[in-house]
Amino acid sequence: TQRTTMQSTPFRRLRKQNSSVSGRSHRFRVAVFGQAGVGKTAFNVRFVTKRFIGEYDPTLESIYQRAYIVPPNYPVFYEIMDTPGQEENNSVMLEKIKWADAFVIVYSITDRQSFAEIPRLKFLVSHTISNNGQKYCTKSNTPIVIVGNKNDLSRDRMVSRSEGEKLALELGCSFYEISVRESIDEIAFIFEQLYRSFRQVE
């Protein structure tokens, strides 16, 4: 059975915690960044609970946890940091980046400004990694993926898929365009690929 827990934990408390991981599971920490309203929380909750919930408080910061088997048979204990969309103190952002093993940067295809924010967030992550290093990671294998959400809202599209692909290529990131509302399989695949990239599992 897969164990799922959801909790809201201030980051200053999280730093002092060392969550227990049972059995052979490997703890894998993922930070999810992006502007408010792009669907970060829905993305995380969809993976953890398989449910889609459209409305959230964009100012809350939560840590979601899920024990999960990455195919073919890799037990992983995911800790997923759902960051608030508003501007944060740089020192707080840097601590969150140092905490994580991998990163998802989300934008909405219906929000041009959220897409324009991607390069800054990618630079902040990459710069912090290169200056400080990550546990188990080198600069070259720290997974950073860009996710374009809400592709079910095609009538409201403001960012083309090709633009997302081009930016991801320029930034050296993997790219996915999805609908959190419509597909859980795509989200699970992203989290699986993050872990595979992190551990260089074939």
Write structural notes for this entry.
37% of the residues are buried. Strands 1-3-4-2-5-6-7 form a 7-stranded mixed β-sheet, with helices on both faces. The protein has one domain (4-199): Rossmann fold (3-Layer(aba) Sandwich). Helices cover 35% and strands 23% of the residues. With 202 residues, it is α/β, with parallel strands linked by helices. The chain has helices spanning 11-14, 40-49, 90-99, 112-116, 118-132, 161-171, 185-199, and strands spanning 4-7, 26-33, 62-70, 74-82, 102-108, 144-149, 174-177. Residues 1-8, 12-20 and 135-139 have low confidence and may be disordered. It starts with a strand and ends with a helix.
Short description:
The protein is α/β, with parallel strands linked by helices and 202 residues long. Helices cover 35% and strands 23% of the residues.
Q: What are the key terms here?
A:
202 residues; alpha/beta; Rossmann fold; 7 helices; 7 strands; 35% helix; 23% strand; disordered N terminus; G protein activity; GTP binding; EC 3.6.5.2; small monomeric GTPase
CATH class: Alpha Beta
Helix and strand composition category: alpha/beta
CATH topology: Rossmann fold
What is the helical fraction, as a range of percent?
A: 25-40%
CATH architectural designation: 3-Layer(aba) Sandwich
Report the mean per-residue pLDDT as an integer: 84
Number of strands: 7
The fraction of residues assigned to DSSP E strands is: 15-25%
Numbering strands along the chain, what is their spatial order in the largest sheet?
A: 1-3-4-2-5-6-7
Number of helices: 7
Number of domains: 1
CATH superfamily: P-loop containing nucleotide triphosphate hydrolases
Distance between the termini: 24 Å
Based on Cα principal axes, name the global outline. globular
**Element string (H = helix, E = strand):** EHEHEEHEHHEHEH
Spans where pLDDT lies below 50 across 5 or more residues:
1-8, 12-20, 135-139
The major sheet is characterized as: 7 strands, mixed
Spatial extent as radius of gyration? 16 Å
